[in-house]
Amino acid sequence: MSKIVLATALCTMALPTQTLAAGDPAKGEAIYNRCSSCHAIIKDGEVLVKGGITGPNLYGIVGRVAGSENEYRYGSERLPIGMFTDDMIRAGEEGLVWTEENIVAYAQDPIGFIQDFLDDETARPNMSVKLKNGADDIAAYLATFSPR
Known about the structure:
Number of domains: 1
CATH architecture: Orthogonal Bundle
Strand order of the largest sheet: 1-2
Shape: globular
Structural class: mainly alpha
Order of helices and strands: HHHEEHHHH
Low-confidence stretches: 1-19, 76-84
Radius of gyration: 17 Å
CATH topology: Cytochrome Bc1 Complex, Chain D, domain 2
Number of helices: 7
Helix content: 25-40%
Distance between the termini: 35 Å
Strand content: under 5%
């Protein structure tokens, strides 16, 4: 392998890349009401998109370590079926950082996503709602509220 090809390959591997989801932010905004029953988008105390408080604030979600939203109580909260909800914190501690791509996968199957990520069939996030259509659009919409 030539030095130029090798140097190019090494530089390419060293560059941080984030491929953007193929979603449409305008479509995501139109279907966000499913998310807003639990989630709001709030920046520095200003409500940008009204929503519930049972889920974490989604402002800045793209690029955020999972389970690290300061205002949201992830752990030590019991669900009716008796499960602790701190698996999202554990996923963050094990390296899960939200990207548009993994937001899409999570929105389509939150429980399966966390179980796969943690390699733990007993793991559970707080969210169990599966978004059959539009997950890529929701991810693209949420990315508009996140620093790039």
